[in-house]
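The material for today's practical consists of a large collection of protein records. An example says more than a description, so a record of this kind follows:
***
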Amino acid sequence: QVQLVESGGGLVQAGGSLRLSCAASRRTFSNYGMGWFRQVPGKQREFVATICWSGSSTYYADSVKGRFTISRDNANNTMYLQMNSLKPEDTAVYYCAAREASACSMEYTEYDYWGQGTQVTVSS
């Protein structure tokens, strides 16, 4: 079992930046593919970014490419999402997720563990 705890959400003006963190409870964190997803009320959970076990491979949704950067620190069991040039349409609850496979994935159904979510609100 893996417990994930997100932090770093908040209220920011358009054009601003936030850095989300996801702390994992397991020492085998480095074996897991990880991802960030987001969700707004009434809509399906949306893929944001994913990172494979070593951190050498990353993939992004087109809507965030060039503005967001996903990274991980396996020594400290933590994943990050640096969000720059934020837009009002980035407003959502952001979730980190882990899957019991080293490969990364853009499909939320392929993830086994989820954090509780952190709210990101971007004002115009």
In short: The chain has a mean pLDDT of 94. The chain has no helices and eleven strands. The longest strand covers residues 92-99. The two ends are 40 Å apart (CA to CA).
